[in-house]
């Protein structure tokens, strides 16, 4: 059987096109896989840097509650003034008053909430409702061994110094720098919250 040159040329073009599509699919899949790996690697090594994966809705139920409270209540009036960096936060959940329910420390990020002396930190209850806020916090907070009115004392760095902040029956004083300076050495067993290595979330 004789096959015309036109038919042969046509068949060649179809095969070539099919091969190109297959290669493109493989490249696309490989690109997606490498993106996920890069994102996970970046989160593990530099959690303070927002990666592609951070733009996906969080599966962390606490982070979701916190983000909802920030956007709808705590900083609702400021949303129009915030840039993408200002809408980042980290959190630590820990029981401060022995009721077996975790309170939530939330550290805000970005220049809107941070200055030379430190950043704004919110303390929320187990339902992500505000207990109080702290201004100019410039490092991880140590949960002190002492208690006042049933709540742990907090050792808070602010403006290059460290202060002991005590619960007053309703909340903690908001400005750590107005509290007694803490000159003792914290033990290695003292719980630390809002460490620099925490994952960063977006609200």
Q: Which keywords apply here?
A:
203 residues; alpha+beta; 2 domains; 6-stranded antiparallel beta sheet; 4-stranded antiparallel beta sheet; globular; disordered N terminus
Shape estimate: globular
Q: Mean pLDDT, rounded to whole units?
A: 79
Counted up, domains total 2
Strand content: 25-35%
N-C termini distance: 70 Å
Q: Quickly count the helices.
A: 2
Got a strand count? 10
Helix content: 25-40%
The profile of the biggest β sheet is: 6 strands, antiparallel
The topology string of helices and strands comes to: HHEEEEEEEEEE
Give structural notes.
The protein is α+β, with helices and mostly antiparallel strands. The chain folds into two domains: 1-45; 52-202, no CATH class. It is built from two helices and ten strands. Strands 1, 2, 3, 4, 5 and 10 form a six-stranded antiparallel β-sheet that branches. The protein has a four-stranded antiparallel β-sheet with strand order 8-7-6-9, with no helix packed on it. The chain is globular. The N and C termini lie far apart (70 Å).
């Amino acid at each position: 059987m004789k096959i015309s040159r036109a038919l042969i040329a046509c068949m060649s073009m179809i095969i070539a096109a099919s091969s190109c599509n297959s290669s493109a699919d493989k490249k696309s899949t490989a690109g997606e896989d490498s993106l996920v790996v890069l994102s996970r690697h970046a989160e593990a090594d530099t959690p303070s840097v927002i990666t592609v994966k951070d733009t996906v809705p969080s599966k962390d139920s606490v982070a979701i509650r916190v983000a909802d409270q920030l956007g709808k209540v705590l900083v609702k009036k400021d949303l129009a003034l915030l840039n993408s960096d200002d809408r980042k936060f980290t959190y630590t959940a820990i029981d401060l008053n022995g009721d077996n329910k975790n309170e939530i420390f939330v550290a805000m990020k970005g220049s809107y909430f941070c200055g030379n002396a430190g950043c704004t930190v919110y303390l929320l209850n187990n339902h992500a409702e505000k207990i109080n806020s702290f201004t100019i916090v410039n490092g991880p907070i140590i949960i002190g061994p002492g208690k006042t009115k049933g709540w742990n004392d907090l050792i808070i760095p602010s403006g290059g110094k460290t202060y002991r902040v005590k619960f007053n029956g309703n909340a903690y004083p908001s400005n750590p720098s107005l509290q007694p300076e803490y000159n003792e050495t914290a033990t290695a067993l003292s719980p630390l919250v809002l460490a620099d290595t925490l994952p960063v979330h977006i609200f």
